[in-house]
Amino acid sequence: TANAQLSRVVGAAKNETPQSRTFIRGIQTVTLIPGDGIGPEISNAVMKIFEAAKAPIRWEERNVTAIRGPGGKWMIPPDAKESMDKNKIGLKGPLKTPIAAGHPSMNLLLRKTFDLYANVRPCVSIEGYQTPYTDVNLVTIRENTEGEYSGIEHVIVDGVVQSIKLITEQASKRIAEYAFEYARNNQRASVTAVHKANIMRMSDGLFLRKCREAAEKYKDVKFTEMYLDTVCLNMVQDPTQFDVLVMPNLYGDILSDLCAGLIGGLGVTPSGNIGANGVAIFESVHGTAPDIAGKDLANPTALLLSAVMMLRHMGLHGHAKKIETACFDTIRDRKVLTKDLGGNSKCSEFTEAICQRMKDMD
Amino acid sequence: MTTRSVRALSGALKPLFSPRSPQGYVVAVCHQTHKSTYTAPPARYGGRHTVTLIPGDGIGPELAKHVCELFRFCCVPVDFEVVNVDSTETSEDDINNAIMAIRRNGVALKGNIETNHNLPPSYKSRNSLLRTTLDLYASVMHCQSLPGVRTQHRNIDIITIRENTEGEYSSLEHENVPGVVESLKIITRTKSLRIADYAFRTAREKGRRRVTAVHKANIMKLGDGLFLECCKEVASGYPEITFDSMIVDNTTMQLVSRPQQFDVMVMPNLYGNVVSNVCAGLVGGPGLVPGANYGENYAVFETGTRNTGKSIANRNTANPTAMLLASCLLLDHLKLHGYASMIRKAILSTITDSRVRSHRCYMQYVGGIQLLLLRPALYFDITLNMSSPLCSSCTLLIWEVRAPHLKWSSPSWMQSRALDLAHRGTRNQMTVRLYL
């Protein structure tokens, strides 16, 4: 009844629980961070495509620049933080890292703020963008908070530098469980832990132990362990043998970029960061490309595929499938492609082609 | 051998077939290399070198056997001192014996020794122990596309030079708080300068144009920053060689999309592991690429990707190419260039010969190499005992040849056909090289 509805809305407005606000009328609000360089153009492209697909998403645009908070610590603007905390899901374009700005990179700040512990990168070969490797279908899940990138370094004596690689039980447990959870939710057959425990016995040994423990809880997913060098060797010979890979930070960085290279580079690779408290930020991992910014030449595929990943994360599989199919069909057609994919079209034309295809599908 | 040296040497032949003693000959003929800084490798007695052989685990023993067999067949003047290292033993006696043997002989050929990573951290990786104790600071892997091998990329020619003793492989770990493990990665100025200098020297010697340093200095500013700084410093002393640097994740991406852009790559330990394995995979896999570890005083040769190959052990399917090419590198190091190039040519011809490849059986594969060595296109050595014109081992070789165009009727063919002489051999032995 009207009264009940009114009281519910009023109650929601007073309560400020995030869930009720974002699920009004089935439309989900997502924080959109356009980014720098080509960021705004590709974000616009994605918004247009989502509109054409009639996806129930409402975008809330925010900008992130590092600002000095109280106490001198660098942080992201409070309205961006608030929006993310409320919406829990974000889509981010490329952010530039100024070299001598004195503040750490924006990606690092975001990661620290929202405790984004897992970086997920599904690498699937794109039909229509030929690379020497076909039939790649794997997912790299990388621990994103600790490991070699802890940033703890000291000069012991002049000429001797020590970098500390930190592996904790809690973080390893968290990432291992996430990996198995992901494998189960996405119907993946096996999870492979990548390590170098023959050399780094204690640190990677701890990581491996936690992965084994998580494997016990998820008996329906097969678990294997492989040395980093063996994985690299086999990856470039036959990438079809891998399914889900889980690893600490450095190996994950290298391997996820290796896999991105297998399918065609960072311009077509989606990526998602999962954080504590249900936060998830999906992003495109390529750079800001300042040389083509504003010229309508950018390729929105990476951001688009990340947005599709986001839809899947939210459970909107139908819309995800529709947009993904339209995108892949357009690329496979090879009629309207941006310059980096080998064509000559503009970003807007590419976007238009995808929207048209989706309209035809309905 | 050049025809010039051959003709010059044929003049030296005459006195040898006379019944005088061959003493004068041993001094006169020397077709070895010409560097004034050449010092004979140690453990060379009576013209024969002693080399430590560590079979290792998995496919190691089989591959070691192939090498021994091939060397015996080619009459390579190398004796192997076999030292077994048992990886299941927790005491370090075995590996210390091996290290002592290598110190004695100066060179070694080794298979990979397995490290059971479920053992406690007090059990250090045997391979790592060997490398750090002997200070084998440079691990060099030359990845080249081989003509008969089908891969996704063609025309790859990359030399990866990896710092072998420090970096992430320092094995310094501790657990201060339960559940929190710290592993130390050490980068020092002296070792970084040393490896950078080695890289540039190698690039200069081999006529390479470009050296790329692989690092992650945007994240590990102090550690990899120091490495990069040292490389830049050394680069300034080699103006003819272009130096650039690349971040490791970008490097791997470029390697799988366009590997032809790389020439010589120098990097710290862990990145070296990743990049060298990627390069090995690009040219055809772990069975094809040899690796070498060089130190100031010692050299150890092994397969490039250091796999134990447990899953294919004892099944007659391991590809011996990597180990055989490593033995060629060993021969080059011992300045036995003739044997090295002979074996190398035979191996490469065998790889391109699809008949042999299709067999997938190592015995026939190695047999194929032996077959090619006897083929008319090459030469082979016969060791003769001076007391009698044909020694027993020589007879065996001749019987195995079956080449119809050679006349085996009388020893006089040796006088007319022998064109070159090797000075290997003891006083009562002489090795004749026959060009067929």
Automatic annotation (TrEMBL), chain A:
Domain (Isopropylmalate dehydrogenase-like) ranges: 29-354
Cofactor(s) listed: Mg(2+); Mn(2+)
Xref: Pfam families: Iso_dh
Catalytic activity: D-threo-isocitrate + NAD(+) = 2-oxoglutarate + CO2 + NADH
Record text on subunit structure and interactions: Heterooligomer of subunits alpha (IDH3A), beta (IDH3B), and gamma (IDH3G) in the apparent ratio of 2:1:1. The heterodimer containing one IDH3A and one IDH3B subunit and the heterodimer containing one IDH3A and one IDH3G subunit assemble into a heterotetramer (which contains two subunits of IDH3A, one of IDH3B and one of IDH3G) and further into the heterooctamer.
Cell compartments where the protein resides: Mitochondrion
Name assigned to this protein: Isocitrate dehydrogenase [NAD] subunit, mitochondrial
Family: Belongs to the isocitrate and isopropylmalate dehydrogenases family.
Gene3D superfamilies: Isopropylmalate Dehydrogenase
MF term (GO), any: isocitrate dehydrogenase (NAD+) activity
One GO CC term, this protein: mitochondrion
TrEMBL record, chain B:
Isopropylmalate dehydrogenase-like domain sequence ranges: 50-366
GO MF annotation, one: oxidoreductase activity, acting on the CH-OH group of donors, NAD or NADP as acceptor
Localization: Mitochondrion
InterPro entries: IsoCit/isopropylmalate_DH_CS, Isocitrate_DH_NAD, IsoPropMal-DH-like_dom
Domain of life from the UniProt record: Eukaryota
A cellular component term, taken from the record's GO annotations: mitochondrion
GO terms (BP aspect): isocitrate metabolic process; tricarboxylic acid cycle
Keywords for this protein: Mitochondrion, Transit peptide, Tricarboxylic acid cycle
Subunit structure of this chain's protein: Heterooligomer of subunits alpha (IDH3A), beta (IDH3B), and gamma (IDH3G) in the apparent ratio of 2:1:1. The heterodimer containing one IDH3A and one IDH3B subunit and the heterodimer containing one IDH3A and one IDH3G subunit assemble into a heterotetramer (which contains two subunits of IDH3A, one of IDH3B and one of IDH3G) and further into the heterooctamer.
NCBIfam families linked to this entry: mito_nad_idh (TIGR00175)
Family classification: Belongs to the isocitrate and isopropylmalate dehydrogenases family.
Name of the protein this chain belongs to: Isocitrate dehydrogenase [NAD] subunit, mitochondrial
